[in-house]
Amino acid sequence: MLGIDPGLTRCGVGVVDVAPDRSATLVYVGVLRSDHGDPIERRLASIAAGLRAVIDDHGPAVVAVERVFAQHNRQTVMGTAQASGIALLVAGERGLPAATHTPTEIKAAITGYGAADKRQVQAMVARILRLDEVPKPADAADALALALCHAWRGGPVAAASGPLTPAQRAWADAERLARR
Amino acid sequence: MLGIDPGLTRCGVGVVDVAPDRSATLVYVGVLRSDHGDPIERRLASIAAGLRAVIDDHGPAVVAVERVFAQHNRQTVMGTAQASGIALLVAGERGLPAATHTPTEIKAAITGYGAADKRQVQAMVARILRLDEVPKPADAADALALALCHAWRGGPVAAASGPLTPAQRAWADAERLARR
Questions:
Q1: Where Mg(2+) 2 is bound, by residue (chains A, B) (predicted)?
Q2: Which of A61, A170, B148, B178 is deepest in the core (most CB within 10 A)?
Q3: How far apart are CA B3 and CA B23, in angstroms?
């Protein structure tokens, strides 16, 4: 699962491997940067090239991209929206399905609480992935949170209708334990 | 000169050839469409493929993309911003310089009046390119207006500092004539 926190100056990228029991392992985390002084077309091309390299190196099955809202800071929102378009395009061109999640969905999936603050989410990401430290910068941790969010929301427990099977109950328990 | 009026559902594309005397000829005009029901990553990939085909067929030297503003209709602005990112990316990946222009700049360049209405701009585009009819749909005409805007604004007269040379004055006169 590849999570992308889109941005022009810093684009967070996180790859996690999520087992059927929903335990998760860090595969890759990083930040793609583009130079503020470069022309926009070259910045976007450099982000696209970086995203393609991550996909080719790690072969994710799905790409999740944080959803961008127009009401945010107007100065940067257009660049963020353009970067999110690049992320979705690269997924589409590699034949990978893409999904978007809102920050609230991500917070709720990771901490169980949609209004959690960023640091709570980041600390939980470190705990879930059994990391000694919170991944830095924040964009990198956000990308991991997004990948976990999508893996869990799209996973078998979330999609189940009706009562849980014993195996699903075991997964749900493991998830609860991981969140403690 | 390739002008792109970015959009997810309809992306206007216009190629014009602008001579040193600033007279302009229509090379290509069209609209790339993507299906509203398709996943966003496939819609963006289909627009990117269409833009690359236009670039490869017509070999423009420069790409101009209409600038998108966050304050527009929130429902569609994100898709438009993403499509504009794709347009800029494709230019960057083909090694072409890209520029953006605001609707006001385009109107002013084409009609001499930044608050001109869309129909005035479209009628002037048809006149400048010596077309019998206004190109349809509007996105196609807008893309041509953008290409003309960039050719003229970025051209030698606009860039000149100090008094015009006789040749520059001749260009400026030809431009004024074309606008009558």
A1: 66
A2: B148
A3: 16
The contact set of B with A (CB < 8 A) is 39-45, 48, 63, 68-71, 74, 77-78, 81-86, 88-89, 91-93, 96-98, 100
Subunit contact A78:B63, Cβ cutoff 8 A: no
Render A14-67 in DSSP notation, one character per residue: EEEEE-TT--EEEEEEEEEE--TTS-HHHHHHHHHHHHHHHHHHH--S-EEEEP
Considering only residues A167 and A157, tell me which one the structure prediction assigns the higher pLDDT. A167
Q: Select from A41, A68, A89 the Cβ nearest to the Cβ of B78.
A: A68
The interface predicted TM-score (ipTM) is 0.78
> CA B47 to CA B164: how far, in whole Å?
41
Q: What is the DSSP letter of A161?
A: -
pLDDT at A168: 52
Share of chain B above pLDDT 90, in %: 71
Domain ranges of chain A: 2-179
In angstroms, the Cα distances linking A62 to A110, A116, A147, B144 are: 18, 26, 9, 38
As its CATH architecture, domain A2-179 has: 2-Layer Sandwich (3.30)
Quick check: B89 and A44 CB within 8 A?
yes
d(Cα B98, Cα B77) in Å, to the nearest integer?
20
Highest mean pLDDT among B76-80, B88-92, B114-118: B88-92
Instruction: Tokens for B130, please give them.
Output: 């010596």
